[in-house]
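[recover] target loaded
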């Protein structure tokens, strides 16, 4: 399914409006007692449940990473892109927008623990961009758009622990940058000495199911998190993750993908003691998950794509606020990042051993 630029623009404008509003602006009921969290229905208010891991891929959050990136398709043959090393920005802008939910907990000042529980509906909207700073024109290479609906259920456990379940139904659409597409179309035509340029329409509907365990005070930290997840396609027997237009593939039919499941595991640990006495608090976040390596050249629909079992994302950093369940938003994380594996950006997911490394920050809005 292709999405028009107008629809994407409207979604982006809605995203910016909602991301930068305060919870008080969202709240429909201005008069309920926020200090009474016992058997409380809520609407359009932030909740610190099942927040994305900083190392999570394609999470709906505000995250910017600046540093080195590996070469991508056609970069090694594009004179206007300059020479290595490639310097770029891997950026995400998004939010899990809270819609409504229910909670039963003893105090707004505590987390969901013991007999507490809650559930709710969120709408995650985000875009994810690869920006190459190695060329004089600073071209945007690729942008992925994601939106959907999300159910979260959280149940408290003794000793400041909690379990959770998150189900997401969504859509992702990928768009190559105009500069790269125009250059590659002119530079690598059909019948030339090198393989011609083709645009593949990476666009699909997906589901994701994630289980979560969290604990406060575990291993001396303020909060520890472990996530186990599995994602897949709604329509695995049709086009798979991508389709094509004959006018963009030079008349060549592209066989759809066969594999449609991707498991993953994530872990995060945050310290509650200041680092060397400074007013900052260290954390480490790690995400591992085998990724499907897209294959646009195969001729047999039943042939399975390769899996890259070396895809991981490691983030180590500091944050400016200690964990506070009643006021978790507004926190900023500053970090070092190392990503290795399948290129996570749209059509480039046929590339293995892709590296992203450097510095960055995440703003929890």
């Amino acid at each position: 399914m292709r999405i028009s630029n107008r629809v994407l623009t409207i979604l982006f404008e809605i995203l910016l409006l909602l991301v930068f509003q305060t919870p008080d602006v969202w709240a429909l009921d201005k008069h309920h007692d926020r200090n009474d969290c016992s058997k409380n229905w809520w609407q359009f208010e932030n909740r610190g449940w099942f927040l994305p891991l900083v190392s999570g891929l394609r999470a709906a959050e505000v995250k910017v990473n600046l540093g080195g990136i590996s070469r991508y398709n056609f970069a090694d043959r594009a004179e206007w892109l300059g020479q290595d090393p490639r310097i770029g920005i891997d950026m995400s802008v998004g939010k899990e927008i809270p819609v409504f939910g229910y909670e039963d907990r003893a105090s707004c000042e505590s987390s969901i623990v013991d007999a507490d529980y809650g559930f709710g509906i969120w709408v995650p909207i985000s875009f994810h961009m690869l920006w190459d700073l190695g060329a004089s024109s600073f071209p945007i290479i690729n942008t992925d758009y994601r939106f959907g609906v999300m159910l979260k259920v959280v149940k408290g456990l003794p000793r400041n622990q909690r379990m959770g379940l998150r189900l997401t139904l969504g859509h992702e659409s990928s768009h190559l940058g105009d500069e790269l597409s125009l250059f590659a179309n002119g530079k690598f035509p059909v019948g030339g000495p090198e393989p011609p340029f083709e645009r593949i329409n990476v666009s699909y509907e997906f589901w994701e199911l994630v289980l979560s365990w969290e604990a406060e005070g575990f291993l001396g930290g303020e909060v520890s998190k472990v996530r186990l997840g599995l994602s897949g396609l709604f329509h695995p027997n049709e086009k798979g993750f991508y389709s094509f237009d004959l006018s963009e593939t030079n008349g060549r039919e592209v066989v759809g993908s066969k594999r449609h499941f991707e498991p993953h595991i994530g872990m995060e640990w945050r310290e509650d003691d200041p680092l060397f006495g400074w007013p900052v608090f260290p954390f480490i976040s790690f995400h591992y998950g085998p990724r499907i390596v897209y294959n646009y050249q195969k001729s047999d629909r039943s042939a399975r794509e390769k899996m890259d079992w070396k895809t991981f994302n490691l983030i180590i950093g500091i944050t400016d606020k200690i964990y506070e369940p009643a006021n978790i938003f507004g926190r900023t994380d500053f970090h070092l990042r190392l990503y290795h594996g399948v290129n996570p950006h749209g059509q480039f997911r046929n590339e293995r051993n892709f590296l992203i490394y450097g510095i960055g920050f995440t703003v929890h809005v």
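[recover] notes: Residues 188 and 196 are 5 Å apart (CA to CA).
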